[in-house]
Write a structure and sequence with these properties.
The protein is mostly helical and about 300 residues long. The protein has two domains: about 100 residues, DNA polymerase, domain 1, CATH 1.10.150; about 180 residues, hpI Integrase, Chain A, CATH 1.10.443.10. It is built from 14 helices and two strands. It has a two-stranded antiparallel sheet with strand order 1-2. The mean pLDDT is about 80.
Length: about 300
């Protein structure tokens, strides 16, 4: 792909800074949104903010068509459109009305989250301890996974916790998407896991510094957690859907099965809309149907 011009590179740098500092997006989102902006700048020959704000529907459709020829599917095309919409909206400013803001992306068939069973979640957390190269690293990984399963945190939220969270407490102040804060209760088993890790960690955990450290002392990154979970799920014979994020799905599904109401679950998960939380009612119903089919005599006989 053609390199961006110096003018385009300057726009990208400004966009990236906005995503990091003003929008407080995750590193993954920053990379994806910056890459999409880079592609649209280069392919549509846009060199200043006015040109970006004026990007029309026809040009955007041609851009997405070219991306399709590169092999991206509906989900990727929808993400690309969403990223470019945000980029164009930033160029237009708060009062700007852009042509592509009303563009609709391809229809996506929403799949249901695939939670783990309680036993699978526990075994996953135990396995990362057993296969860790050092004791403190195993305790660290267990604490991270228990925060995902026991408190419903996103992986980025868990890794953004500071050393202040090492002090045992019944609640945690979590900063979610868009800088939105929420308070989540912390189960004793999760508190104990964090305390055990903090006691074993060879690096000082300053209140304003990262709680979870990598092997060399820097902040722990998402890729390492994903790698550890992938190794553990293969060892346990779990499906590819058993990812760190699946532990958050499990938290939500198991709470809903236990009688938690949707509004409370929405608050615990940090969802902006109730619609995002309602998908878990479908998961619960699907699980009930599977149990029925496995247990009902007529189903077995048929």
């Amino acid at each position: 792909m053609t390199k961006p011009t110096p003018q385009q590179a300057a726009l990208l740098a400004e966009w990236r800074e906005h995503l990091i500092h003003a929008r407080r997006r995750s590193p993954h989102t920053v990379r994806a949104y910056t890459a999409a902006a880079r592609r649209v700048l280069v392919e549509c020959s846009l060199s200043d903010w006015n040109a970006v704000a004026a990007l029309d529907v026809s040009a955007m459709r041609r851009f997405l068509t070219r991306r399709r020829t590169e092999g991206i599917g509906n989900a990727s095309a929808a993400r690309e459109l969403s990223a470019v919409k945000a980029f164009v909206a930033f160029a237009a400013g708060e009062d700007g009305d852009t042509a592509i803001a009303r563009m609709r992306g391809p229809r996506l068939k929403k799949g249901l989250p695939r939670p783990l069973t309680p036993d699978e979640a526990v075994h996953l957390a135990q396995d990362v301890v057993a296969r860790a190269t050092e004791d403190w690293i195993g305790l660290r990984d267990r604490a991270v996974l228990l925060l995902l399963y026991g408190a419903g945190l996103r992986i980025a939220e868990a890794l953004s916790l500071t050393g202040a969270a090492a002090t045992p407490a019944e609640t945690l102040l979590v900063e979610g998407k868009g800088g939105k804060q929420r308070i989540v209760p912390v189960l004793p088993v999760v508190q104990d896991a964090i305390t055990a890790y903090a006691a074993a960690c060879p690096y000082p955990l300053h209140p304003a510094g990262p709680l979870f450290r990598g092997a060399k002392g820097g902040p722990l990154n998402q890729g390492m957690v994903q790698k550890v979970v992938a190794q553990a799920r293969r060892a346990l014979g779990l499906p590819p859907s058993a990812t760190p994020h699946a532990l958050r799905h499990s938290f939500a599904t198991h709470l809903l099965s236990g009688g938690t109401d949707l509004r409370s679950l929405q608050e615990l998960l940090g969802h902006a809309s109730l619609g995002s939380t309602q998908i878990y009612t479908r998961v619960d119903a699907a699980q009930m149907l599977n149990v029925y089919r496995a247990a009902h005599p007529r189903e077995k006989a048929g």
